[in-house]
Amino acid sequence: MDYTKYQYLTFEYPSDGVLLITINRPEVLNATNNRLHWELSTVWLDVDKDDDCRIAVITGAGKAFSAGGDLDMVIGQVGDFKQIAAIAKEAADLVYNIVNCEKPVVSAINGVAVGAGLAAALMADISVIAEDARLTDGHLRLGVGAGDHAAIIWPILCGMAKAKYYLMTAEFINGVEAERIGLVSMCKPRDEVLPAALEIAAKLAAGPQHALRWTKRSLNHWVRNAGPIFEASLGFEMLNFFDDDVLEGAKAIKEKRAPVFPSTQKSS
Questions:
Q1: How far from chain centre, in Å, is Cα 223?
Q2: What pLDDT does residue 268 have?
């Protein structure tokens, strides 16, 4: 498989049958720009076709997994129907391509995870997170609905009560709490995260592959059944990009201050 078309993802085989994918924009904490967003949505199709890969592991370079979307990218798509439609397709592809990839995916969440990176981390079949890593869906901080992946997977992973609380408040969750509520599979000290993920992947790679893949396919029908919920959430998220709240949300995040969303202000 030729992975040279990927600019911000790197690939290596640390053991037989295990493909390690690293999100590689460490200078910006692996934040997703337009190109990386596309790469994260597309790579699973190539993983599926890669005869050398039985298990994929995804992690981030440096001290972050992925620190969310590049704010300039976010601001640039506000009100632009064609760009919003393209981003919506990629967001759907990211979720569905991981779900439908027959190869199991393990995420090694080595640091902060937000936005499209978090979608890849939590849509993985098995997730290992650092104790001090912090994650948040974060959409409400920006002023848009929680559409990327949250509605399709959070209620399944951690239950509706916790999903509603964390998605509506956009509070950060550390690795210990994420494991406690069932949002991730396993929590480890930071320096043990990638080794643990690779050990799990090696164990899976040595297992009965048809049985493993069919188990993934069967379990993911729970996720597929939530497809209409996901499609609705994604549509509502994209609709928010025609609202003034998102501009204020992005500006507030850039300026590191509390937002004053126009939708909270009384009309004169």
A1: 15
A2: 57
Domains of the chain: 9-255 (3.90.226.10)
Query: Which conformational region is residue 18 in: left (phi greater than 0), alpha (psi within -120 to 50 degrees), or beta?
Result: beta
Q: How far apart are CA 37 and CA 15, in angstroms?
A: 27
Model pTM score: 0.95
Distance in angstroms (rounded) separating the CA atoms of residues 188 and 176? 8
- What is the DSSP-derived secondary structure letter of residue 266? P
The SS3 call for residue 133 is coil
Report the SS3 class of residue 152.
helix
- Cα first-last separation, the chain: 60
* Long-range contacts at 80-88 (CB < 8 A, ≥ 24 apart): 84/238, 84/241, 84/242, 85/238, 87/37, 87/238, 88/234, 88/235, 88/237, 88/238
The edge-to-edge listing of strands for the beta sheet with 126-130 is: 9-15, 18-23, 55-60, 105-109, 126-130, 186-188
pLDDT tens-digit profile of 204-239? 999 999 999 999 999 999 999 999 999 999 999 999
Amino acid at 50: D
